[in-house]
Design goal:
Number of strands: 11
Oligomer: single chain
Distance between the termini: 29 Å
Structural class: mainly beta
Strand order of the largest sheet: 1-7-11-10-8-9
């Protein structure tokens, strides 16, 4: 059975790896990109964060798990100054980030344009694709880039830990995979893949 193309960005994995560490970071109004839950986040000027470009390298802060307005209200809440479920570009707010610390495991889907993941890819390194999220569904479009344009192990942002074991998920196109940050601002250093 083929995997569904159900892109949701990145999310903390439950029940595997080290306990996640969360921190709220400001998002500066100068940010020129919509922000979605599930986006890989990079450090920005003055301690703020923004959605990470593909291969953010050591500027990666982690993964956005919640968004708030400047008053600290969850976006989309009736008391929030932001009525959408995403934070529009040029809008200040806050992102709760699952930090890219050693041992923290995340789940993400392999991209539509990528080579299909296989068991042999466990231990490989790769980058992510920083797709544009949906303003309709408020879902992030950040995905794993198994193609890496030329081959796996040319990108270092993430290391593949394994496949998410689920009856609806199998090796192949759009597989949900466990990954750890291989490069980040918080103590993870880059190393080549296996």
């Amino acid at each position: 059975m083929a995997n569904r193309d159900n892109v949701m960005g990145f999310r903390p994995a439950a029940g595997i790896g080290k306990a996640h560490v969360f921190r709220r970071f400001p998002i500066d109004a100068s940010n020129g990109t919509n922000v979605f839950v599930g986006d890989v986040m990079a450090l920005n000027a003055a301690g703020s964060v923004r959605p990470a470009a593909a291969d953010a390298g050591v500027s990666a802060a982690g993964v956005c798990v919640a968004l708030y307005d400047t008053n600290g209200h969850p976006i989309g809440h009736p008391n929030s100054a932001v009525s959408t479920k995403y934070l529009a570009s040029s809008t200040a707010g806050y992102a709760l980030v699952a930090m890219a610390v050693p041992g923290a495991v995340f789940v993400a889907q392999s991209s539509t344009a990528s080579t299909a993941p296989a068991a042999a890819d466990i231990g490989a390194t790769l980058d992510h694709i920083a797709g544009t999220g949906s303003t309709t569904t408020a879902r992030s479009a950040h995905e794993l880039d198994f193609a890496q344009t030329t081959a796996l192990n040319t990108g270092l942002q993430f290391r593949v830990v394994g496949i998410v074991v689920d009856p609806t998920n199998a090796y192949g196109q759009h597989a949900d995979m466990y990954v750890v940050f291989n490069e980040s601002a918080f103590g993870v250093s880059a190393a080549a893949g296996i």
